[in-house]
Amino acid sequence: MQLLKEKILSEGQALSEDILKVDSFLNHQMDPLLMKEIGKEFAKRFEQKEITKVLTIESSGIGPGLMAALVLEVPLIFARKRKSLTLTNDLVTASVHSFTKQETNTITVSNKYIEAGDKVLIIDDFLAVGQAARGLVDICSQVGADVVGIGIVIEKAFQSGGKDLREQGFHVESLAKIAELKFGEITFVEEKEGAPINV
Ligand code: G4P
């Protein structure tokens, strides 16, 4: 997605060879016009899938997830990482270990909102090793819902998550794929040629 790649190049910062900082439009301040375009792009890429729910994880998945849900005209559900005072019954949980943050969270969704027969589109802001996506897939399989797609804003293609999830048969669409973050430079994967280029 060209607009997103331009935004990453103009405002993103490679903090190290592994971490891309995009606080100005995705992880802290959010750019609503960019989010609107992201929502439309996800809806276009998954339009054949008869999606009934969009599922994400708090907090940074909520912006792009809500915009996709708005265009698809289906509800958005976000898995919680912290205990809610009001969300107490009929909970489905999964364990998500973050290699980036070196912490494990129990994520929670009420089975009132994701049910057997739902066709679920999972959305998240980043895909690294794929633990968050796997946790959301786990929740869907516990309630008998079908994961029909996984939409990612920024995939770090040099980490294993995207490859693993595609090998497991999931339809993964990433709007920007980072090939590497070397020497402070951000390099995208060139989708058509399969070779990395600087955009
Ligand atoms: P994984 O889900 O693919 O396994 O990723 P990982 O555990 O490594 O990521 C844990 C958290 O770190 C996630 O946010 C993820 O979005 C974020 N993250 C991973 N790599 C990057 C990166 O290069 N840049 C940025 N900006 N974030 C990254 P989270 O804990 O769910 O935080 P939030 O959604 O509350 O912001």
Provide a descriptive summary of the structure in words.
The protein has one domain: Rossmann fold. The chain has helices spanning 2-11, 23-27, 32-45, 62-72, 131-143, 161-167; strands spanning 13-14, 20-21, 53-57, 76-79, 91-98, 103-110, 119-127, 146-156, 172-180, 187-189, 196-197. It contains six helices and eleven strands. The strands form three sheets. A seven-stranded mixed beta sheet has the order 4-3-7-8-9-10-11, with helices on both faces. Strand 1 (13-14) and strand 2 (20-21) form a beta hairpin. Mean pLDDT is 93; it is low at 193-199. Residues 19-22, 27, 57, 59-61, 98-101, 125-132, 156, 161 line the site of guanosine-5',3'-tetraphosphate (G4P).
Q: What labels would you give this structure?
A:
binds guanosine-5',3'-tetraphosphate; disordered C terminus; globular; 11 strands; alpha/beta; 7-stranded mixed sheet
